[in-house]
Amino acid sequence: MAYPLLLAALLTLLVAAILQLLYRHYRYxxxxxxxxxxxxxxxxxxxxxxxxxxSTNSDDQWFRDRINKYGPVSMLTLLGxxxxxxxxxxxxxxxxxxxGLILTQTSALRALVGRSVLTLAGVELKQVRGALQGFLxxxxxxxxxxxxxxxxxxxxxxxxxxxxxxxxxxxxxRLALGIICSAVLGQEAAHFKExxxxxxxxxxxxxxxxxxKIPFSRFSKGxxxxxxxxxxxxxxxxxxxxxxxxxxxxxxxxDFITYMLILCSQGVHSLTMEDIVDNAMSLIVGAHETxxxxxxxxxxxxxxxxxILDKVTKEQDEIASNKxxxxxxxxxxxxxxxxxxxxxxxxxxxxxxxxGSFRTATKDIEYQGYHIPKGWKVFAAQSVTHMDAQxxxxxxxxxxxxxxxxxxPYCYMPFGGGPRMCPGNEFARVEIMVAxxxxxxxxxxxxxxxxxxxxRDPKPTPSLGLPIKLNIRSMP
Length: 476
Fold this sequence. Notes:
single chain; 476 residues; alpha+beta; CATH 1.10.630.10; three-stranded antiparallel beta sheet; 16 helices; oxidoreductase; monooxygenase; monooxygenase activity
């Protein structure tokens, strides 16, 4: 009898503590006009409900149900923080142009990637963002087209040619990792990308986990993978720093780490070696995951859209007809891939790699008559507009030609918007276009499991990795 009584006492104390927290909260914010909705149980709130929606590929419906119930502004608790959910074009404009909202991330992500562009704020964020924009500006990306071409050709020859069956997601994940590692780490990337590919996947899966280091949990595995990756990048960065000391002012910043070390020596930013490593790691994590998802779902869509595949192939064949087989693609070639990029844009609309983003209010903010208290999180579900029938006609249809028409501002948000546009969008465009050029010109494929579904883990992930039956294309 003692154990049931003890359990009942503990539950009573827990309920009392929760009620006390709720009382203090509502008393403190009694003067605020908070948005509709409920915070729910402290710390937990609607977290498990949202994570379950991600795992069952029902996240878009989860958002729409909430918007239908409370409107485009509502409050809840997510991942341990009181949060205001905002959705719609007006909300997107507000979020991406308001200086009182700083990009923030979950506690898990901060622990996993450290002091990076994903977690910094204020002057430090401006320094890092400015450096990233300088490194990834079109003039710099133009110089990388030949390197990307080489990476793609080598990858296709090694992982596609001669194969009957290819599991797309893990295969293109290795390609995307190789491309971004080459840009971030330079020639030292070759060994790095092969030895740590699995660790990057493990780290990526831990981003939306609870930051409690329980053995064998996602977060614990992610932290172990993060430590391995950080150690490897630190070794590379230290060697580059030593090389710069010997090279002097004649050194060229052809990779991200060298570029950041040179800027540091010039006093452009005040980041430490550890900060540079963290930013290199976060850049690799973010870039290779989103690119691999986009390539995977383009392949998935093209398998069932013969007319669209024929148009993409015709465009790529015309570009190749003006080149020798051994010639690498150029910046101008990529600029001609207009229809192929529309297919990529439509893929990003229907299956956005990033479902939304978290921001933190640095001061009390008012939006549409509601207050967002200082310190609260703002969850921007910007991709909700992608499936809005009032913005995109018949949104469930896959139609690249919809991007031949004007799309209203802040309605299509795969790369963010306004002054907070993703600085890597041009790099991503080149990477995707070069990869699709060689894949559609050399192969045809069939989906092996047409019933295969996908979930967010946290990026869109086919349950089987999208295995396809591969055939060499019969050239006309």
